[in-house]
């Protein structure tokens, strides 16, 4: 009987410790996850904008080249 009570007490201690751990570190984990997501979204947006900018410059150069060819005739 005493051994079962001791086992129950140990289980209760483990559950209590995990609850305290969860309460202390959950906001930190959530904050890190949020910062990571914001960083990823920002990086993807930045890469997309840079790519679009390069494509736009290439398009302008192509138009200028076409105008130059038309000017030759």
Task: Briefly summarize what is shown.
This protein has 73 residues and is mainly α.
Question: Could you characterize what this model shows?
Answer:
0% of the residues are buried. The longest helix has 71 residues, at 2-72. The chain starts with a helix and ends with a helix. It has one helix at residues 2-72. Helices cover 97% and strands 0% of the residues. By secondary structure, it is an all-alpha fold. It is rod-shaped.
Features:
single chain, 73 residues, mainly alpha, 1 helix, 97% helix, 0% strand, rod-shaped
Structural class: mainly alpha
- Taken in chain order, the helices and strands follow as H
What characterizes the major β-sheet? none
Number of helices: 1
What portion of the residues fall into strands of 2 or more residues?
under 5%
Terminal CA distance: 105 Å
Helix content: over 70%
Residue-averaged pLDDT, rounded?
84
- Count of DSSP E strands? 0
Shape: rod-shaped
Poorly predicted tracts of residues: none
The oligomerization state is: single chain
Keywords: Membrane, Transmembrane, Transmembrane helix
């Amino acid at each position: 009987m005493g051994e079962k009570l001791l086992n129950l007490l140990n289980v209760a201690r483990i559950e209590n410790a995990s609850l305290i751990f969860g309460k202390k570190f959950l906001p930190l984990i959530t904050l890190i996850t949020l910062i990571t997501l914001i960083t990823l979204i920002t990086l993807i947006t930045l890469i997309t904008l840079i790519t679009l900018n390069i494509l736009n410059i290439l398009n302008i150069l192509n138009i200028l080249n076409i105008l130059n060819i038309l000017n030759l005739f």
